[in-house]
Each structure stands twice: as C-alpha cells, then as structure tokens.
C-alpha cells in the first residue's frame, strides 16, 4: 500500500486459528486484519504532518499526545492507543502456556489479592463491568504494587504512570461473533489462552526499569 508507511501491522505471533476453540479464527482475522489495520492506517495519517513525531515509540506518542492541541493530539492518542492496546492484547495470548503465572508475578498476585482464584474473580468482574467499549488491565505501579483497572475506548494505563502487565479487549468486536453478548463466557474462554510468561516478563521489566520504558 503506502510506500513510506511509518507504522505497519505486524503479523500475529501465532496462526489465526491457534486460539481455537476459545477465540475463533474468524474473529482473529477481523480483529487483526480489519480493526487493528484501521488503527495502523489512521495513525500513519495522523502522524503524516508531524515529521518530528515519527521517531517516537507508541508509548512516547501516547504519553505526549495529551500535551498537544486537541486537533493533533486526539487522533494521535486514539490511534497510537489503538495500535498499542491491540498489539498488547494479541501478545497477551498464546495457544500454549501454563494456566497460571509463576515466580515473582505469582507471589505479587497472592500478596495483593489473596490467591490466584480471588484475582481471577476480581479481574473478570472489572472487565465484565466495562461500560461500552474498553479494556480490562492488570498493571503495576513503580513499586511493583499490582492493580486491576479498566480503560475506556483506546485509553491505556501508561498515562497514569503505570506499567501494563496484561489486558483483555472488551470491545464487542473481540467476542461477539462467537460469544454474542455473553461477556462472562468470553472471559472464561480467554483465561485458557492468557500468555503468563509474557505477563511475567513485563512485570520483571517494570520492577527493573519502572513505567514508561
Ligand atoms: Mn479490539
């Protein structure tokens, strides 16, 4: 398509049908090839008039956009957030992996929530309660304290100075083809494909380097 495309839609780290039967192949095609692709295209359009922003990372764009005049900042925030959140979501899933975290992250979850089961319950309740479109997140502050939060639309925990550890996309396009309006069913399927090693690596990086890395 565009010759000087700045941002590209990286392929998924697994096959489109790899998360079956929990997340269906058609949803993954639409989600990656249509929804994420649109954010990539719109981010390129939003950045075209600003050569000096073209070397910034997604994290830097997201954190900087709020300081720009809204006409420039809003499209950059929305679309950099859309690309960041979707990459994060796809990278937070894997067809093969342990069904629970281990090591430092597992200990931090136990410390904060009492048990892994209690954490799952609290996380699912928060994600299920997203009003309209948004995401459920596990994030860490700079001291390694975990928290569950939700964000609306394509907002991220980065602007609150937090390290995202994992997320789940609660926009209807993430689940409606297979799970219809049953968010609880989507979430109970989604637990089967959470990429705990990726979450552990992000938590370790947060403890080492802090947010905004
Ligand atoms: Mn999505």
């Amino acid at each position: 398509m565009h010759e000087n495309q700045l941002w590209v839609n990286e392929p998924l780290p697994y096959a489109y049908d790899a998360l079956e039967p929990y997340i269906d192949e058609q949803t993954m095609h639409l989600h990656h090839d249509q929804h994420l692709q649109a954010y990539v295209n719109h981010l390129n359009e939003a950045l075209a008039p600003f050569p000096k922003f073209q070397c910034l990372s997604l994290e830097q764009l997201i954190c900087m956009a709020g300081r720009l005049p809204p006409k420039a900042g809003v499209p950059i925030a929305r679309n950099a957030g859309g690309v960041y959140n979707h990459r994060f979501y796809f990278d937070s899933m894997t067809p093969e992996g342990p069904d629970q975290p281990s090591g430092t992250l597992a200990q931090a979850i136990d410390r904060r929530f009492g048990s892994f089961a209690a954490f799952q319950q609290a996380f699912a309740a928060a994600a299920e309660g997203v009003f309209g479109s948004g995401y459920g997140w596990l994030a860490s502050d700079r001291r390694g304290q975990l928290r569950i939060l939700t964000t609306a639309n394509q907002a991220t925990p980065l602007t609150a100075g937090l390290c995202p550890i994992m997320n789940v996309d609660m926009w209807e396009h993430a689940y409606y083809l297979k799970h219809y309006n049953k968010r609880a069913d989507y979430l109970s399927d989604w637990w089967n494909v959470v990429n705990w090693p990726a979450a552990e690596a992000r938590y370790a990086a947060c403890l080492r380097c802090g947010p905004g890395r």
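Residues 31, 35, 86, 169, 171, 173-174 surround manganese (II) ion (CB under 6 Å). The two ends are 31 Å apart (CA to CA).
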